[in-house]
Amino acid sequence: MILAHVLGLQWNLSRMSFFGARILLLLAVITANFAHGQPTRFLLHHGWKIQSSCNAKGEGKEISTAGFSTIGWHRAEVPTTVVAALVADKTYADPDYGMNLKSLPGMNYSRTEFFANQPMPEGSPFGCSWWFRTEFSVPISAQGKSEWLHFDGLNYRANVWVNGEKVGDAHDVAGTFRVFEFNVSKQLAPGKPNVLAVQVFAPDKGDLGITWVDWNPTPPDKDMGLWKDVYVATSGDIALRDPFITSKLGNDYASAALTITVEARNASDHAVNGTLSAQIEGIDLTQPVELGPAESKTITFTPEQYPRLKLDHPRLWWPYQMGSAEMYTARLNVETGGHISDS
User: Fold this and answer.
1) Is residue 13 classed exposed, middle or buried when 0-12, 13-18 and 19+ CB atoms within 10 A define those classes?
2) How far, in Å, CA of 213 to CA of 218, rounded?
3) CA geometry: angle at 242 spanning 23 and 240, to 5°?
């Protein structure tokens, strides 16, 4: 999910047509408003503790169990990198002052080439992985719903543990600019304490991490950490993911044909049926959805199947000083058993 908010999501989607030096866009914003009783999310910003795996006593199973002692661990707020958290809790001095950055442990890497292309220097505390741990509760109202653990951005690899069970392995959970999601319905206990423990590894030599220019030195941890939001979201049996709208403009800009796609995922171990609805400014479309156990399927609304997606005289998003910046709003939801499963 992109551009996450507590009560909604937005995806800015566009299709560009180039005619000479002009760029025209038909821009759609897909929103999902989570009203009371409908799918919602719980941000995990506060109450984190971090510690180097070289110092932490315990493995993932123990660390992700309620009651595990974090005495001597560092407090943190997520999103954060390891160095940022250690600066925030005064372990390290402010790196923006004087020569403090250069004096941080692990800053003894070579300046002759980019740090991203080097291994961690010998003795660096960031050559070890670091644990990010938090205890949290999910409201009892989430009982019976599908529960999804989301990472909007982590750097660079991670093992993910929830309540003593490993749900993600660093072999698969890798990539600074990827989004990761795990179905944790079987691991979480609504209304009770839950523990999330994430063992984060810094980028290796040659990994596509968050790089820095030569005049702005790379932090010694290579920005390892949870650098975007972490949250738990709920849905019914069917969850909607990765909505996308493309628009094809006519040569005279007097018409546009829209195509809507979204991935539907069955979070249950049984077959489910539902109805997918799409609305774009007075255009209401529906399509039946049938999914086998744990099946994912891309659902598409095409202008050939749904002629109402062929727009006359569409409002266009014009470049600055060439016209107004128009925007359409689209909403998607899926119902199962007469109730909204996700939106």
Assistant:
1) buried
2) 8
3) 140
- Is the same domain home to 56 and 114? yes
Let me know: does 131 contact 50? Beta carbons within 8 Å: yes
Looking up residue 28, the CATH number of its domain turns out to be 2.60.40.10
Domain boundary (176, 209, 235) is at 235
**pTM confidence score:** 0.84
Closest CA to 4 of 26, 31, 28, 27: 31
User: Do 154 and 30 belong together in one domain?
Assistant: no
Whether 97 and 25 share a structural domain = no
Which residues lie across from 199 on neighbouring strands?
131, 159
The structure tokens listed for 97 are: 């002052």
Q: Are residues 47 and 60 part of one domain?
A: yes
pLDDT tens for the chain, 343 residues: list them.
222 222 222 223 333 333 333 334 555 655 444 333 345 889 999 999 999 999 998 999 999 999 999 999 999 999 999 999 999 999 999 999 999 999 999 998 988 888 888 899 999 999 999 999 999 998 888 888 999 999 999 999 999 999 999 999 999 999 999 999 999 999 999 989 999 999 999 999 889 888 887 678 899 999 999 999 999 999 999 999 999 999 999 998 999 999 999 999 999 999 999 999 999 988 999 999 999 999 999 999 999 999 999 999 999 998 888 989 999 999 999 999 889 999 9
Q: Are residues 127 and 75 part of one domain?
A: yes
Beta bridge partners of 241: 263
Q: Which domain holds residue 96?
A: 42-235
C-alpha angle 236/237/239, rounded to 5°?
Answer: 75
Edge-to-edge order in the sheet of strand 74-76? 74-76, 48-52, 130-137, 193-201, 157-162, 165-168
